[in-house]
Amino acid sequence: MWQLTIAQNSACTISVKGKVMDMNSIDALEDVSIAVLETQQGVLTDAFGKFQLNSLCKGKITLSVSHIGCQTQIFNFDLQRDTIIKIKLDHTEVELSEVQVTEAKKESHSTQQVATLETKQLEKLRGLSLGESLSKISGVTTLNTGSTISKPVIHGLHSNRILILNNGVRLEGQQWGSEHAPEIDPFMAQQLSVIKGASSLQYGSDAVGGVILVEPNHLPSQPGIGGEFNFAGYSNNAEGNFSATLEGNHAKVPALSWRVQGTYKRSGNVRSPNYWQKNTGVEEGDFSVTLAWKKENYGFEIFYSRFQTKLGILSASHLGNVDDLNSAIQSKTPLELSGFTYNIGRPYQNVAHDMLKVRAYVKTGKAGVLDIVFARQFNLRKEYDKHLPYNNLLAKKNLPGFQFQIQTLTLDLIWQHRTIKNFSGTIGFNGMTQTNEFKYGYFIPAFWNFSGGVFAIEKWRKKNLELEAGVRLDYKWLQVFMNHNGDNGTYTFNYVVPSGSMGIEYHINENVKWNANLGTAWRAPQANELFANGLHHGAASVEIGDKTLKPELAYNFTTGIQATTKYFDANVALYENVISHFIYLQPVLPSTLTIRGEFPTYRFNQSNVSLTGSDIDLVAKPIKGLELFSKTSLLFAYNLTTADWQIQMPPQRFENGIRYTLRDFKHIKETYFGVSIINVLQQKLIPQNDTDYAVPPKAYWLLNFEAGFKLQLKKQAIHFSVTVTNMANISYRDYLDRFRYFTDKQGVNAALRVRVPFFFEQKVRTKNN
Amino acid sequence: MDKIKNTFYALAALVIITASLHSCKPETNNCDNCETELITTVIVALTDSATGAVTHFVFRDLDGDGANAPVQFDTIKVLANHTYTGSLLVLDESKSPADTISNEILEEANDHQFFFHSHDVTVGFTYLDFDSHAPPMPIGLSTKWSIGSTTGNGKVHILLKHQPGIKDGNEATGETDLDIDFNALVQ
To answer: What ipTM was reported for this prediction?
Structure first.
């Protein structure tokens, strides 16, 4: 029998406060996960074991309490008023029962700078790409190639210097290109986290800039069928996004849970304040399937996802040679314009990414939990040039100009031991093999590689102090097969590099904590950096690789203070990232003479650079419901080798705003509205003899508006939100947009989003029934 | 415990089998069946209207728009006060036999146009071939070159623009297929 549960009723203002302790030692337990199964609200306990859940409804609720090393506890109670509860967890006994077990919990990153976007914030970002969504976090910006391709930049670093974990598996697409966006559907995520700075040993040593975690919701453990329907529509480019999730669990087979999720997106040409950007439509279709079997002492999970997108690329950006580029830059509007259409013509990209993940965990007696993840990823990228072949027969075949395909297999073995005398820790192995092939035009060679790393991280925690230290050793083998320009050589590269990190977190009092982390990371040169040799049409430049490049080594220090008080929240972080042998494109003279004329030429070069910066988040709450917020991202990127500023780094960025939350009114709840102003300065920290084609764009400011509410119709909640970006319809260009030479950015864009969560509880039949 | 062990072994076996099946050496014959197109060579044939003598001037860059330097880049030598009929031959010599790109340009004449300029030498260029636009627009595979009376060194600039559906007689329009600045000597 299925029945719609009363998800929330009219009195949803109740709070539950509490404290979680160890049953035996009476120590407060930090990072215990407390979740309300009915509403999917969740919190973690703080260093004092405390937690608070707000906006709960009257009626029966089910709390799920889970912590590493002990089994998940389920509490049912009838909630009538604000409640304080004490929970004691047992870490010693391993007793089988009918309730769910803890999975190996993710490593927490308390000594590092971590920022997270959760359900509420993500709700306002639905329909945006991963890169655009993350740029709401201070210190995170985007690198764009026009309006359709956007990549996240953390503290000035991007592409292969950032590791993206897609549901626990490192994303291995074609991340080396600056016009290659991450192959991820953000609708899949219930939580997006960014670990800023290099030192995430358990994910890989090559996260020189940081790590992005894309995490779906936990699979349901309550019998029934639930899910969510999402719609997001945008005015500027007539974009429509539809996403749906369906998930379930059955009372008769409580170990089995499943989820199916799919997204479809279609958008047309983007409108800048004064014109349409020709050929900037996108069509995307993604889906994922998850099946999990969870038992007390072991469990399995199979996850398959497919991402498929067709991205239009601004017509006016594909050029012949440097003269064409100069005439494009001199023109105030793109040299090719059009009206509105959903059609996508040449040039465009067609990208598909498949991932299959098989995960298993086994409790290794009382000592800990072993987690095994195997994944296969296959990425197929086709880039269609604007230019059709001269030969009409060939043109009819509509072949891509480039086709890249990369297959990646990864295996992760991670063993987490239970807390022994204040020590907790993880040891693990990550292995990877890749095969890269290309067809049609040459840009990067075929290669294969194997890499493996072992790591150990230990944490010591007592009262308000936590210390952490880790080491890692990586081996990488890369073999490249050249078949271009008369070079048929096979080149082999080997790297063995250790890395390490240490950190501290100290709770000054209940409201203020301080942390600091010192870490190293390294990144081997990529095949394109070693072997690129040819013309990059979009950029109208020749890129030349260098076989003698050394690995990049980063030494990263971050420190921050987080304060949370009744009237004021603050999060101030400082960082210093010194990278030796930093690889970047350096302009070289003379330019290359080709049959199409002259092209500016860039060679992959190495320098020592220093990236210094600060992320400052402040929130003032003078009266109930009112929030004044301010976010600042500062970065000073200096090239130590040339003793000058480093090119292509994000300029200083500020966001200031105000948000007001209204009291609930009948069926309308959680109503808020706000405005914010984003201010981006002109990048003046550029090299003196900058060889850029155009000076960095002027400073700009954008006015944004947001509003939303929840409509509670008896048993059903519907979430509505509206955002308007660039409300003043300002014409502007951004320094980190590779198409800033050709076009202004998007004008005013209003979005409407609707989210409808649902859950049909399965009533467990009793004998009397 | 046996159950757990067995599960673990089964999974490990699965992983190893899958890994050994799939981790393979890349295929490097990536251009067996791809018919890429490249322009490597431009030959300017000048026929002296007075004498009928034909001279050839060659630009040859075997990697086309690749980063390597051209292997042949002739100086165009002409006589003062002479008139020539110029014809252009555009080839892809990276293939065997060489592909004649100028035939394809002629087929798509409505989307292509050559442009000519001279610097420091005086050459008057007149188009001799036209496409099927109404009114017809010039192509430039066949031209008349009228050389001025001054002798000396200079440049002859030949430009081919691809203007699919947007051909307008303007050399700033469209994409550059060819852009060659020949050294020229008027004797």
So the answer is: 0.74
